[in-house]
Structures are given as C-alpha cells and as structure tokens.
Amino acid sequence: MPARFVRGDLFAYPGLKAFGHGCNCAGSMGAGIAVAFKQRWPAMFEEYRARCHDGRFALGDVFVWTEGDVTVYNLGTQEHWKKKAQISALTRATLRMLDLAEKGGVSAIGLPRIGAGLGGLDWPKVRDALKSAGDQTKVDLVIFEDYIPAQTDH
C-alpha cells in the first residue's frame, strides 16, 4: 500500500493505534519526539533502556511494545544519540516493523519524519526509503511530514 504523507499531530490522528519512531541503541529518549513516546509509555521506555543496556536492541532492530489497544514500534536507527542515524538501519527496521505489523494484524502505523530530525538524515532520502517500504506492504504507512499541533480545548 503506498505510503501516505500527511500534515498533523501523530498522536491525535483519527484511528491510529500503532506508532513507530527511530531510537538510538544507547537507551536514551531525552530529546525530540522520543520524549513524547517516553512520557506516554514510561514502562515501554524502561524496557527499551534495559534492552539497550544488555545488548538486546541494536541497529536495525525493532522493539515492539503493546499497551492497551496501542502498539509502539521502536526502531533501532542510531547507534548512539551522539551519532547520526543510518539509512541502512532505518530501512531494515522499517521493513521488519511492517512485517511484524502484517503478521500481528496491524492495519496502519503512524511515523514522524523518522531519522530526519535529531537523527541527522536527509529528509528526501528518508522519504524515498519510506515510500519504497510502503510499496512493499499491505499496512497503511502514515508519515507525518509536517507537524501541526492538535487543537485542544482549554
């Protein structure tokens, strides 16, 4: 199914129950959108950190977390937060995520501009990699190309 590039708030998009994001393999979620994932799913963060520290999470890996009716795919795209993400690791992890999602009955996954923010990768190259991955799956890959905060009532 072709990847869809949209504008909006990843966590407020109607119907999305699965999310993916790029992670370093050093156990840190201290900046960027990773902070939002850490705040929403603190137990996921603790397990992710443990996996990083004992070597169970490496470049190209996917750590899947399910809590309630939400699934989070943590993709190993950076060796360390001080290093750039690697397009080869991003591609491997994305394809693995899509395979796991298909087998798990997940119909749609939302992603930010994975690897192109603090990961330091060139967005057009990442976009092409995600588009190619989307062409190889039945999972609806929804990529939030432009972040627009959801309106909240105060």
What does this structure look like?
A three-stranded parallel beta sheet has the order 1-6-5, with helices on one face. The relative contact order is 0.24. A hairpin with a 2-residue loop joins strand 3 and strand 4. Helix content is 32%, strand content 25%. The protein is built from four helices and six strands. The chain has one domain (4-147): Leucine Aminopeptidase, subunit E, domain 1, CATH 3.40.220. The model has no long low-confidence stretch (mean pLDDT 93).
Brief account:
The protein has 154 residues and is an alpha/beta fold. The chain has helices spanning 33-40, 42-53, 87-103, 123-134; strands spanning 4-8, 18-24, 62-67, 70-78, 108-111, 140-147. The chain is globular, with a radius of gyration of 14 Å.
Number of domains: 1
Rg over alpha carbons: 14 Å
Order of helices and strands: EEHHEEHEHE
Helix count equals: 4
Provide the fold topology:
Elements: E1 4-8, E2 18-24, H1 33-40, H2 42-53, E3 62-67, E4 70-78, H3 87-103, E5 108-111, H4 123-134, E6 140-147
Parallel strand pairs: 1-6, 2-4, 5-6
Antiparallel strand pairs: 3-4
What keyword list fits this structure?
three-stranded parallel sheet; 6 strands; 4 helices; Leucine Aminopeptidase, subunit E, domain 1; alpha/beta; 154 residues
